[in-house]
Every structure is written in structure tokens, then in C-alpha cells.
Amino acid sequence: MSFLGPERETLERLLPGLDKQLAEVPLLELETREGPGIEMFRKAGGPGLVIPTAYNGVGATAVEAVRATRALATRSPSVAIATTMHQFSVASLVALAKASSSFEWMLLDGVAVDGRLVASGFAEGRAGQGILSPTLTARRDGDVLRLSGAKRPCSLSRSMDLLTASVAIPEPDGSVKLGVAMIPAQSEGIRIEPFWSSWVLAGAQSDAVILDDVEVHPDLIVDLGTGLDGELDDLQTIGFVWFELLVTACYLGIAAGLVERVLLAGRGSVEDRARLATTIEGASLMLDGAASNLDAGDGSNDGLGRSLVVRFAVAEMVGTAVRGAVEALGGMAFVSSSEVAYLAAATHAIAFHPPSRHSVAGAMVEWFGGRPLVMS
């Protein structure tokens, strides 16, 4: 087994040619706002990665998805982060399609066949909100709904074909129902505004998406108020688990790319190199194990708890590996190119994705004590 061999083999098998194409483009070019990586991902069939083959997708398992994501991150952190938000959205739609009798399967088929990129307007585990907590408001206008709101930041903002978001739908009796809207990116009333000012991960296109009275036909909104037979909590939990595993895979892949540079350059002592590679491999095995549990149907509350354990444990290992890799590569590698500094800086963003360690500390302690994990 070669270092990063399973990851690169998985990516090549699922999306042939993509790894080679990304490797031929300089890292810092891929990381710019205009970088070609996202379109390479699209053309390689990436939009259909986690869509079942029954809907003309690639049909990747969770284990395959996290391995492919790690491989992507070694080539371009921005592409990995941006496309993770697509995969998270699509995986949530797959779970929704299994739980309802609506038209989600038609959308999934279109995403896979036409190579459409789906941006995430979901809450994505924000403290105090579930995945499906409303991020948009709606008003009725005859037979259509008009949606308003904003997502800041929103990865894939400039490449998306669809925006998927949760919405609060007003009813004639004054009540409010929960729905999921699939909004074409070219709809009148959608605009993109600059938001992401940092040069780190600029290629993920994480700007602001603003909706101002955007008309959406009811056929493009899935009503979650009926027809799910009480499975809404399960659906949100599965979405959380996918999000945590894929985001973790991104930053582990970035760290693995740095360690790969140490191994290829033969930097540091043999003990240093073995320790760094072991740290990355150990974290990868941990993440693959959690993904395997998801493949086996563990999208439960305890599965969510385990995904957070993996996320926070891997974050510690990423930090350790990155510090060791930068030290082993040495000062000349650091000052002669911006790539080492860039990759090291990018890994710090793992702490910024919700939920933060601080926000769920109490909930995790309660869960370790045998009570359900309640994120608030």
C-alpha cells in the first residue's frame, strides 16, 4: 500500500481522469476564484458521485465518498470544500427521496445526467439550528411562492445550477410548514455579492447568495410537513452525519497532502516521516470506520455522536500532522514557495465549520453519560 494509494485509487475509479487533471494545474491557480477545478469536477461526473445508480449517478458509498474527498483535497482544498457542500446537499436529497413519494428522484436524475452543481442553503449544523431549520422565508403569490433570504457564505455561489434550501411556508390558517426548495440559480431575484475576503480557500466561491422575492413553483418545493411519517428528525440527523464526515475528510486530505510532500522529499528523520504518515493513516482509518457505519445504516443519534467524536479527534491529529510536516519541510520550503504556508493555513478552517467544539461540549458530555445528543 502506498501513502494516499486507497484515496487516489477510489477517486480514479469513480471519476476517471480527474486526479491527473487537477495534478497538472499549479495549486495556487486552482485556489483562485477563477480556478478551473470546479469545472473539471463537473465534467468528470462529480455531481453524480453520491447519487445512486438507480438515478443514473455514480453510486459512491460513504466510505468511497470520504476517500475521494481526501484525494481531492490533496490536489485542491477549495475544490474539495466547494464540492463537499454539493455532496452534502445531494446526500440529503437522497435521504429525502427514500423517505417521501415526491419528485426528488427526478431532480437527482437531472443532477447526475446533466452535471448540475447544487449549492447548499441549509443551516449545515449551525448551533441552535437543525440541518432543515428554515433559512428562507416565503410568501404566497397566487399559485407560486416567493422566497427571500440570504446564505452567507455559500460555497459554489458562482458555479451553482441549483440552490437547495429549507424554507418556512405560510399556510392560510396562519400556521407555518417546513419545506425544502430547489431553486434554479438563474431565477430572477437571485444575486451574488462578495463576502469571502480571505485568499485562503477563495476557490470555493464562498460568497453571499441573496434571494429577493424569487418566484418558485410549488412543484420545486418538497413539503416536509406531511408524508414523512415522523422521519424528519432522522432525516436531519443523517444530513448532519454526512456533513461532519465529508468536512472532516477535506481537512484530513489537506494535511495528507502536506505529509506527502515530506515523504516524497525525504525530509526529517525516518522516525519523523513514519510518525507523520502514521498519524494521517490512523485518522483516515477512523474516518473510514465512521463512514462504514453510515453505509451500514447508522444514521442514528448515536451515529451523529460518533461522527462528532471523529471530527474533533481528527482535527487534533490534523493539527499535529501539519505542525510536524511544516517543521520537517523546513524554512527554505516555507519561504521559497507560498504553497506550504497556504496548505497549513487552510487546515485551520476545520475549526470554523459548525458545530464548534465549544458549542457542543455540554451536549457531548451528556451523550457520553448515556443521554441523547441534543445540539442547541
UniProtKB/TrEMBL annotation:
UniProt KW Ribonucleoprotein keyword: no
InterPro entries documented for this protein: Acyl-CoA_Oxase/DH_mid-dom_sf, AcylCo_DH-like_C, AcylCoA_DH/ox_N_sf, AcylCoA_DH/oxidase_NM_dom_sf
Source taxon at top rank: Bacteria
GO molecular function, one term: acyl-CoA dehydrogenase activity
Record keywords, A-Z: FAD, Flavoprotein, Oxidoreductase
Gene3D superfamilies in the record: Acyl-CoA dehydrogenase/oxidase, N-terminal domain, Butyryl-CoA Dehydrogenase, subunit A, domain 2, Butyryl-CoA Dehydrogenase, subunit A, domain 3
Ranges in a coiled coil: none
PANTHER family tied to this protein: ACYL-COA DEHYDROGENASE, ACYL-COA DEHYDROGENASE FADE28
Protein name in UniProt: Oxidoreductase
Organism: Phytohabitans rumicis
Lineage: Bacteria, Bacillati, Actinomycetota, Actinomycetes, Micromonosporales
